Amino acid sequence: MRAAAGDLHDDLVRLRRDLHREPELGLDLPRTQEKVLAALEGLPLEITTGTALSSVTAVLRGSSPGPVVLLRGDMDALPLTERSGVPYASQIPGRMHACGHDLHTAMLVGAARLLAERSFTGSVVFMFQPGEEGNGGAKIMIEEGLLDAAGARPVAAYGLHVTSSIMPAGTFVTRRGTLMAAADQMRVTVRGAGGHGSQPHLAKDPIPAASEIVTALQTFATRRFDAFDPVVITVGSINAGTAPNIIPDEAQLGLTIRSFSPAARARVTEGVRELIGGIAAAHGLTAELDHEMGYPVTVNDAAEAEFAAGAVADLYGPERFVWVPNPMTTAEDFSYVLEEVPGAFVFLGACPPDRDPSTAPFNHATTAVFDDAVLPDGSALLAELALRRLATAI
Length: 394
What we know:
single chain; alpha/beta; eight-stranded mixed beta sheet; 10 helices; 34% helix
């Protein structure tokens, strides 16, 4: 598998860099979809495209019916202006493939090509997904029938994600159980009554209450939750007032809330509401909360994580695989797939060889750069996982 994937290197690099030059955002990725369809042309695939998003679902049938395995690659970029300096940099200001989704797309195309040349029993579903960066594209694809595309539900699902730093290129990491956090957002408006700064007793000042909420949230996170099932609450924005001598009518806070279990997620949601409402009431004010539930906790099936680790060790040697000890506080919408299907999500180091992984810009940085040399590695692992899993599920 490694040798065959290596033969695809140049084609995968061309595709990845073509995608990188013309990034698209969100759920509507028409040019990206066109490029994926062109790259898959000639393969014996049953292809459908999305209705509410520019997705591509491709089914590869084996020599005889059997189990189904799903492989996923996300395709959307980020609203950033690229400053990486690479010769194939984004040609569209304000858009950049800073999270490596262009690599994921090329890797999945490579996996489809590899598997199309092999005989197996069952089917493989290739999930080319828009809208991972906050738009929940995976959930929409599921609602549009992704998991039934092959006529039977997948027995397993696998996804890869590259990183531009932290780990050396070619290193695979994952963990059993919770891999990434749930990420929710909350907009809070503390409402009072404005007045003159010289007579605060005649007003209802929302700023002290908002400030108290900020500090109380940190105490709440550390004193109401188990240290081994924590939550992370960050107040990322606070806005109030227009002048030093004017008490405003209201103050706004923007929060992100991250948790690592469904139970903690439910408790922190309820607790934050109670805390904010209580502090506002104690000041004679009211608080309006707009809570946006984000991606769920990303949970690897323990057996599938072990299965992925074994495949990496057999393909590349055990030295290329690392068990990560703790969950990551990032979030990922492949979590929606893993809520429905047992599977594993694996990270792959893609830090360029001329950079130090400990100091290189991380994903989402305008200067992030990824090493194209890992493209065949990702394609080979995805294809190998599908073949092995179909064989063991028969």
